[in-house]
Amino acid sequence: MANTIVIFGASGDLTSRKLIPALYRLFQKNRLPEGSLIVGVSRSNFEHQQWRDSLRTSVEEFANDCFDNETWARFADTLYYLPGDIKNADDFESLAEFLDTIEPEHHSGRLYYLSTMPQLYEEAIKQLGAAGLNNDETGFRRVIIEKPFGTDLKSARALNASIHGVFREDQIYRIDHYLGKETVQNIFALRFANLIFEPIWNRRYVDHVQITVAEEVVIGRRAGYYDTAGILRDMFQNHLLQLMMITAMEPPARYDAAMVRDEKVKVLHSIRRMTGGDFASDTVRGQYKGYLKEEGVPANSDTETYAVLKLYCDNWRWKGVPFYLRSGKGMSCRTTQIVVQFKNVPHILFGEKTREPVGNRLVMQVQPAEGIQLHFETKVPDSEMKTRTSTLDFSFSNTPGGKSLPDSYQRLLLDALTGDASLFARSDEVELAWGIIDPILAAWRSPAAPPLYEYETGLWGPPESTQWMYKQDREWFDVC
Ligand code: BG6
């Protein structure tokens, strides 16, 4: 059944770089329900055709591997534009009328995508409700909300409360684009479609887990947002905690939105909240050299561009196993990886004459070298019993369909259209995540904050972070 996707913030960057190219790709693959319409709303005064023309340029650029004129012509026919101000109730009335005129009878549903400034989310939701656009008697009405979802627990709770005044929880899709990544979904497959990992996926065999999201880029022109957010809000409350939840969760009884999210939420409940001396001993903060010179950054800013958190899950599976979460801008390369470091063998037979084996290690490469590597010891040929580390290497790019993995937004838009919320954050999940991050934010802004280390761009963050790991008899797995 055909649907309408209404994008608020239609003249913004996300719409032209991500949403429309993703919708174009879905359209080309015949994945969008036949007869689907896309309506853009923003304050700019475009005609339908002007909006289509500007989007053509973006699709040519961001979906250039599959752009063709014939598909574009058919896709462009589904695009409409309506000037509208989120603060203006009349504009929502006009939108309601407009949708009624373009949608044929028996149209099945509407998906509203809030791709506006986050300060406008509450207002947009309120206006949708006031104009009756939430009424789902004749077809589904769902809303996708972009990140950031609040700036702390209090604001996230307030936002949830306002949204729940207009939409039921099952109509709300909070995006974390990391969950749309194929390789993140592949962690579910690796863990729950195989028998061999589960028996060792616990405190008896795992020494620690490292979750790294390193970015080569610096903040560029995003100072206005970034300097007030900092890396904990920008990356940890959402993406890194999501990766941790999927790595640490119990197998759900069924792969559906309720059960998957129930299990993820249990992980958040089990994460030990930091208190007292933990902020100094279990966190590292950094800022790249040159950050203070970025356009728009106050000269005395102490905003973090690098952070490490050492978190524990206090439950039967993970008690005592540290999860090191690390992210930084201005790092050596762009890489997202989850490393499960297993313990060493209990009794070393071959190491004494050579070197100790390093312990098995499973590396899940989320991006850009999407794949999985298992490191294990093998005998050095023609030696006494010397061993060395070898690697079993799986790469998505060597598998059928794995050369160019679909962008997150394709998957997430499709799931929201079909009503599958498994890869979206639930209200309790978002609030619990803030509950973990808020005390750290507060401690870092207090007089007792741990030092903010400077670091050179192009390396692996502050050298103090490397030392900090050594002190725990561990080392970062820094591989690009
Ligand atoms: C966004 C952050 O959510 O994720 C950015 O706001 C960050 O600061 C980006 O660069 C990283 O996403 P990806 O998909 O490029 O790893």
TrEMBL record:
Domain Glucose-6-phosphate dehydrogenase NAD-binding: 6-186
Enzyme class: oxidoreductase
Active site: H239 (proton acceptor)
Positions annotated to bind substrate: H177, K181, E215, D234, K329
GO BP: glucose metabolic process; pentose-phosphate shunt, oxidative branch
Residues reported in the UniProt entry to bind NADP(+): R43, D85, I86, K147
Highest taxon in the source lineage: Bacteria
Keywords of this entry: Carbohydrate metabolism, Glucose metabolism, NADP, Oxidoreductase
UniProt pathway annotation: Carbohydrate degradation; pentose phosphate pathway; D-ribulose 5-phosphate from D-glucose 6-phosphate (oxidative stage): step 1/3
Residues annotated as domain Glucose-6-phosphate dehydrogenase C-terminal: 189-476
Catalytic activity: D-glucose 6-phosphate + NADP(+) = 6-phospho-D-glucono-1,5-lactone + NADPH + H(+)
Family annotation (Gene3D superfamilies): Dihydrodipicolinate Reductase, domain 2, NAD(P)-binding Rossmann-like Domain
GO molecular function, one term: glucose-6-phosphate dehydrogenase activity
Pfam families reported for this sequence: G6PD_C, G6PD_N
EC number(s) given by UniProt: 1.1.1.49
Family annotation (InterPro entries): G6P_DH, G6P_DH_AS, G6P_DH_C, G6P_DH_NAD-bd, NAD(P)-bd_dom_sf
GO cellular component, one term: cytosol
Family stated for the protein in its record: Belongs to the glucose-6-phosphate dehydrogenase family.
Role played: Catalyzes the oxidation of glucose 6-phosphate to 6-phosphogluconolactone.
Name this polypeptide is given: Glucose-6-phosphate 1-dehydrogenase
Gene expressing this chain: zwf
